[in-house]
């Protein structure tokens, strides 16, 4: 893991942060013959894309470091090596702030353009923002299960999580359990957490929720969880840009939008909206038992969609 | 409000409770010429059915106390006047325990049979249980947005709420915000809590969640919320009855099952399952922007369905 340091930064909210230290990883060498792939990670992930997105990123995968130079930076607000100082305990970090920081890092790395920019969920929000704000910088854009403006439904889910975080020390466990409900759906729990014993309590679905809560508490901080949930809420490509449609019309990258049929958090309607309003775009829908989490789990399907898309675009993969 | 007292009671779990005091209300006099309507209330409601189900129950409504004798008892575990002593701080109260208590009260009131038994959600669970356990006692049964066995999805929602309750003093506020997500859906929040201002935070959907959380904290106890959420989880008509299908086949009441198309907590598939497995049953689906909460809010549609059903059955309404 490498670190990129920068002194001062004014957030979109107007607040100042300082002593910023961005953790990032580069997989593969920089070379004029190699295409640059930039990955924007989601809420609780990190710069180690070969870990959390294996099947797409790794030695034997489509995006491997022999063929590509792959960059992934831990986002501003996250707790995996990225840090900063702030007057405010929990400053509001917008998606635009994250992209301004990604751009600073890209400039520092002497990247003149990104051949493939890819992200799902909160990562998709960043990728869209970058393609809107600096269209010439991005040649190909792939976004999965994301949106142009976060929905009232998504904000309500996030607020319930922040209310849980505020309740006390282990609130992050409840917050994760809430999030999991939005990442999955009725079918997921029905097919994977059904009890057939005749009992009165200690059901599998309940045990699973507690397990997932504890697991996150051990690897994440409540401060980062709070900040990034507010970042997600703030997502609105149209803010101070006349309209969302106007913002999306700025994107010149060849764009692939992938939606997951069973996603209740970022429903297909949001993916259709993106594809409809981005000029050079194509929409692909994949099926999954896992709802929104399909963006991490259905790597085989995503791979197939990406490979076909590359053939169509006559891109060497 | 009246009170029914009973000394000792052995719960389905084997635990003992004592000094039980059940708060209940009777609307209208008992008279041989009047039909008896019994209402089973849901999670955070109470015996005042004319308050929380007005539009169906009240002076000018279908179920009025001039024509019917209407009984509604605050359920065991709830905090609206019903109380008990227990060795365990939070005993497990099953739906069967609630019905055993309702039956004791019905016997005390010299009710020889119930002409109309009606309930939605947790109230529907009770109504189904009563019709299974004492079929001859119930002539007509109407259940709305409920199930025969609580789903892993429903249990996961409840566990997230209990994790929030456990987090600290105001955990009940987060619990209510979580519940609200399951009572509504994407469309509900989209149509009622959209922001059009270009802001970075303090979105309407978040404010709404906080408001609903505070509102419940002021009127409910965390102990009751915990107990009743476990009661809901325990719902399984098939427990120790060979199978759910076998249990449902015991019901002899003429049964109307009402489902709400947009209900994500008690989806239509669960209503179809009930109607399919209850002999003299009819299924009606209503539409609502409000998802599961439609069972409380769509009284006009429920009224229309009930009136048509009464005509079909040649019941005087």
From TrEMBL, chains A, B:
Keywords assigned: Acyltransferase, Amino-acid biosynthesis, Cytoplasm, Methionine biosynthesis, Transferase
GO biological process: homoserine metabolic process; methionine biosynthetic process
Boundaries of every AB hydrolase-1 domain copy: 36-298
EC number(s) on file: 2.3.1.31
Active site location: 121, 263, 292
Residues binding substrate: 176, 293
Enzyme class: transferase
GO cellular component: cytoplasm
UniProt similarity note: Belongs to the AB hydrolase superfamily. MetX family.
Function according to Swiss-Prot or TrEMBL: Transfers an acetyl group from acetyl-CoA to L-homoserine, forming acetyl-L-homoserine.
Subunit description: Homodimer.
Name the record gives this protein: Homoserine O-acetyltransferase
The species this protein was found in: Halpernia frigidisoli
Gene (name only): metXA
């Amino acid at each position: 893991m490498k670190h990129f340091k920068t002194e001062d930064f004014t957030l979109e909210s107007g607040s100042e942060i300082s002593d910023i230290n961005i953790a990032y990883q580069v997989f593969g060498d920089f070379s004029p013959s190699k295409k640059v792939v930039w990955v924007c990670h989601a809420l609780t992930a990190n710069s180690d894309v070969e870990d959390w997105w294996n099947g797409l990123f790794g030695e034997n995968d489509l995006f491997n470091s022999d063929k590509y130079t792959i960059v992934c930076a831990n986002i501003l607000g996250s707790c995996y090596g990225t840090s900063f100082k702030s007057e405010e305990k929990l400053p509001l970090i917008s998606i635009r702030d994250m992209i301004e920081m990604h751009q600073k890092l890209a400039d520092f790395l002497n990247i003149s353009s990104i051949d493939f920019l890819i992200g799902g969920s909160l990562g998709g929000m960043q990728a869209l923002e970058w393609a809107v704000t600096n269209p010439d910088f991005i040649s190909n854009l792939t976004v999965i299960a994301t949106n142009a403006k976060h929905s009232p439904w998504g904000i309500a889910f996030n607020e319930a999580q922040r209310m849980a975080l505020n309740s006390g020390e282990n609130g992050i466990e409840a917050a994760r359990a809430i999030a999991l409900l939005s990442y999955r759906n009725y079918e997921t729990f029905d097919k994977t957490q059904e009890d057939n014993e005749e009992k009165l309590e200690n059901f599998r679905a309940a045990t699973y929720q507690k397990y997932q809560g504890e697991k996150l508490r051990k690897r994440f901080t409540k401060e980062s969880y709070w900040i990034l949930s507010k970042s997600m809420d703030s997502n609105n490509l149209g803010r101070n840009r006349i309209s969302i449609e106007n913002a999306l019309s700025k994107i010149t990258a060849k764009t692939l939008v992938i939606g997951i049929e069973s996603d209740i958090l970022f429903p297909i309607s949001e993916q259709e909206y993106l594809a409809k309003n981005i000029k050079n775009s194509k929409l692909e829908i994949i099926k999954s038992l896992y709802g929104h989490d399909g963006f991490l789990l259905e790597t085989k399907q995503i791979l197939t969609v990406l490979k076909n898309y590359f053939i169509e675009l006559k891109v060497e993969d």
